[in-house]
Amino acid sequence: TCAFAGQKKVLAAYEEAVKCGYSGARAGRLHTPHGVFDTPMFMPVGTQATVKAVSPRELKEMGAQIILSNTYHLYLRPGTELVAEAGGLHRFMDWDGGILTDSGGFQVFSLGPLRKITEEGAAFRSHIDGSTQFLSPEIAIKAQMNLGADIIMAFDECIPYPAEYQYAKLSTERTTRWAERSQKAHTRSGQALFAIVQGGMYQDLRRVSANDLVSLDFPGYGIGGLSVGEPKPVMYEMLEQTVPLLPENKPRYLMGVGTPDCLVEAVRYGIDMFDCVFPTRVARNGTAMTKSGRLVVKNAAYAKDFLPIDENCGCYACQNFSRAYIRHLLKADEIFGLRLTTIHNLYFLLDFTKKMRQAILEDRFLSFREEFLAQYCK
Ligand SMILES: O=c1[nH]cnc2c(CCNCC3CCCCC3)c3[nH]c(NCc4cccs4)nc3cc12
Ligand SMILES: [Zn+2]
User: What is the pLDDT of residues 183-242, one digit of tens each?
Assistant: First the structure.
């Protein structure tokens, strides 16, 4: 049900790009029960059924299409059965756009030593009350069916970085078996289940993982195990090895990425969807994202700066408020300050993916990428 129709490969830029490196950039349309959405797309993260500090109305206004929620957190509190009784996540949080939930596995694996992984699944200690919990493909899929997201993720293990080849091999093979169990447990029609490609930082394991999951035929594919501390060139190398093996007519979701420079490189390799906690997290400590890099609004330098964060930005914060005002709010610990930096950072990334889509449709993605990287990394 997650038909990926109408993608347009930029032939002119594509041929030019093949000469000087790889460009699989594409502009697609993602069909879900809650609407048809444009890619490339950034998906704001709403861990506990809310994108922190902003309302669904503001999310709609800034152009958010699909938002994420966290199965691990909602499973522990308030419980996924409760959300199902409330009519599902869309009703519960009053969001009528797309929703994607993760399987909960990532939280378990990033909890570090508090967890034990077996073929069956993963045991872990709840960060809320310390109780021992257990997640398996079957439990994770049932929880996500209860939440009722449009796109749900297979239960996987995000391999830590660095990892020994042998561990990466065994873990990747288990993640493929878990993907098959996830598929069997997934009985909710109208809901798309994406598998997640693993393989650590090993080209051969990445290719085996991608080929095995493609043979199981999923409506879309996450690329996992990246943006976990590896050097960026290694991440790009894994993308170059993996993305071409995935079906062109299905969406590719690079998990946990990221900063604008990573987004523009990943789009070049053919990634369509992104999620990252970064924009909302840094906003809460007073950092704004701009096309020239980060701007720490809280710094004394902006005490008497009566310009907006970015005078070319169309967001609510930049249209109405100055850096001095936002800095004042942040220093005074006023909630409105966090709201304004969050609104700006989300708008910035949503607008950035819209600009990439436009550039792809107008056959000028590679020059867009050059110009952006020159300005951003300076
Ligand atoms: O292989 C993976 N499998 C599953 N999830 C992954 C995630 C979580 C993606 N965001 C989930 C969201 C669901 C809704 C709530 C918020 C998270 C990753 N995030 C990162 N890097 C960013 C990182 C963030 C923190 C440490 S690394 N690499 C990731 C790799 C995997
Ligand atoms: Zn702004």
Answer: 999 999 999 999 999 999 999 999 999 999 999 999 999 999 999 999 999 999 999 999
**Is the CB of 330 inside a 6 Å radius of any atom of ligand 1?**
no
Rounded distance, CA 171 to CA 180, Å? 14
**């960026």: which residue's tokens?**
232
102: Cβ below 6 Å to ligand 1? yes
Query: Would you say the CB of residue 255 lies under 6 angstroms from ligand 1?
Result: yes
Query: β-strand 122-125 against 115-117: which pairing, if any?
Result: antiparallel
- pTM confidence score: 0.94
Mutate to test the pocket of ligand 1, among 174, 227, 280, 346 (most ligand atoms within 8 A of CB): 227
Separation of CA 241 and ligand 1 centre (Å): 20
Question: What value of ipTM does the predicted structure carry?
Answer: 0.99
CB 154, CB 172: distance < 8 Å? no
Residues forming the active site: 102, 275
Q: What is the pLDDT of residues 301-350, one digit of tens each?
A: 999 999 999 999 999 999 999 999 999 999 999 999 999 999 999 999 99
Q: Which three-class secondary structure state does DSSP give residue 327?
A: helix
Per the listing, tokens 């004042």 go with: 328
Is-contact 222 2, C-beta < 8 A? no
Q: What count of other Cβ atoms lies within 10 Å of the Cβ of residue 5? A: 10
